[in-house]
Structures are given as structure tokens and as C-alpha cells.
Fold:
Amino acid sequence: MSSDLIFSNVSKRYIVRHEVDDDATKHPWIRKLNALRKRRDEFWALRDVNFAVERGETVGIIGHNGAGKSTILKLLANITAPTSGEIVINGRLSALIEVGSGFHPELTGRENIFLNGAILGMGRREIASKLESIAEFAGVKAFLDVPVKRFSSGMYVRLGFSIASHLDPDILLLDEVLAVGDAAFQEKCLQRIEGLRRAGTTIVFISHDLAAVERICDRVILMRRGEVAATGNPRDIISLYQEQIEPSRINTMKTAVEDDRAVIESLAFYTPSGLRPSVFHTADPLVARIDYVAHEEVRDAVFEIFVRTGDLTEMCQLTTETSGSPINLPVGPGTLEFHCDELSLQPGMYHANVCVKERLASEAINWQYHAATLRVDPGRITRGQFYQSNRWKLLRQAHSATSAQNGAGEAERPPATRRPSLTPTS
Structure:
């Protein structure tokens, strides 16, 4: 099998210039001369990176922010050049790095399709033949002749992805393109990418959405500090990555150091049966277990867990503060568990912060940032920001009995009512 992409000992160096600290009491001309002398530091985004992508293969690249993922994509897309090493590309390459980046707000949807398609390397005849399909996929067919500045943000990104997904490249580069639209459109995007895979397109996919990476990739490369840390089967490499980003204890808050009356040792997520899986699913039952040590007695203690996305959006909180009875911690080790009947989080990677404090206290006794990570894969398929567990009843005035459906609700027939008879009058 031949390789469509080859990275051979590729390195990329950036020069970071820093302002030189100066004494404000010096003469202004001297300060201006000193300002011209800037301290230069080297930053190696990549160091001796080697890998190859075979024809028709879908390869995912994952890693922490700053690990070198986007630098690889920019080198492949010829946005920047390597400092050293060789890159070999065999075939027509297209990069989808920023959805809708080529749109002009004053132009209509139709005009932007031609403009954006041309930027991405499509010919006018090719764009015209795909125009209807592009608009249909994006769900903007009725708004083709409306300036895109009138589009909602969802319409804007859907159209951008639709144009790019109608390319017919030999090699397609994707960078976080699935972070667009609602859950239904994201599923549509995934199906489109899978269609390109089946058609034999070579795909390099960079994303923090580990569930999507595992679903569509044949192989995954894990980057760490500008170097290839591991490569192999998606599930194995993703599990390795999760182990790296799940420190058992990270103290970054001053109060965690200054007050050690109670110290949180660990936070972990379990099933009700006591297993500790690497992946949970939306609507799964979950147990969050906090292990702590009290060095002094703490009266009326409160434990809290804050679950956040990678961009620090706070999704939910678990707290004992609403409990009617106070929690008193005697000296020694202990464990507290939160039990959730159904996990409300939608698929994604989440980080959990945990703290212990005294009720009504302004500061925590101990606070752990990024105490654990939580990976959630699709379970119950629902739309929206979170899954809302529910029960339902079907109320009818029907003569036939209606049975409960799926065990998720119940059907109920109200009592029969007698209608007054209507007698015709002459």
C-alpha cells in the first residue's frame, strides 16, 4: 500500500520576541533604542516528527493544547513551512481548518458558495453542479439569495461545512470541524465523513472530540510536547491519553496549601457495581467517589464537584450543601459518594474540580483543579446541551387499552364521561 502523506524528521521552530524591561527614569531616546533590542527565545512546536498516512486511511491526531497538532495541519496545508525535514504529499489536498472563513457577509449564500468553493480549490463548473446538493445538506435552500450577514450562526457554519464536504480531494485535512451546529447536524457531518472514507479519501482528523476520533479513525497518533508519543489502535491510544490527563491530585489554589485540616486525596467515577470504566454513556448511572483525609475535626463540612468542558464552561455541580443534616468529619480518612441515577452530560470530554469547605465559609479548606476527567460517549440520543431524564403519561379517551412503551412511561385512560344526548326538535 502506498503512502499519501509522509512526515520525515520534520521540525518547526518559532522565534518568540520579548520586550526588554526598561527603567522609566532613563532618557526617552535611550528607552527607544532599548526597545529595538528584544530578547529572542526559541520555541520548537515540532521536533523530529515521523509518520506516514496510507492511501485511503483515516488518521486521528490528539493531544493536549500546544502538543503540536495544529502545527502539523498547517504544515500539511502549506500555511507554514518546516524548519527542517521533508513532507511528501501524493494527490490533491484540501484543508478544512476554519468553517466559513472565506465568506463575505454582503454576498448571498449562492455567491458565497461560488467564492468559498473557489478558495477551497473547486472549479466554477464543479461548484454549479453541486450547488443544489450543498444547499440541501446545509438546510439553507430557501435562503440562497439572502446575504449571509442575515444568516444565523448555525446556518453560517452549516453552509461552510457543506461546501467543504462536497470537495472531491484525494487527501482531506479536518481540524475541529465537528464543533458546529446542533447534535443532529454533527451526526450528519460524521456520516458525510464516513462516506468520504468509504469512497477512499485519505483523511487526517484533528479533534478534542475523542468519541468522534474513535468512531471514524483507523489509527490515532498521540502528540506530546511536539513529538509523537504513541501511535496505534484508536481505543488503546485514547485510553493512554486519558490516563495522562487524569492526575489524581493537582493543587493550584493557595488555600489548598495553607489549610490542611482536610485534604482531598482523589476523585474517581464508578459504576454502581464498583467498576471504574474509561468511558461512560449519556443516561448511564454513575457514582462519583471522593477520598479524603481529615487532619483535624471539621464540623458542618460541604463537598462539591464542578464539571467543566475543555473551554471551562461549567456544565453542572454536585453538592452536599442542600443536605438537611450537617456532615461532621472526624480525624482520619474517609470517603463520600455522589450517586447519579442517570448521567445528563452529552458526549464529550469533561474535567472535574472538587473541593471541601465549611458551610457558609468564603474560602474552601481544600480545592483540587482537574482532579479527574470524564469521557462520555453517545448513549440516549437526544438533542440539546444535556440529557433530561423524564417520565411520561399518555392520556386518551379511547376504548382500546394502551400499553406502556419502552418502560419509560405509562399510558393512562381517564374515567369515561357521559355526554348529554341531543334530541332533534321539530
About this structure: The radius of gyration is 28 Å. Residues 183-198 form the longest helix (16 residues).
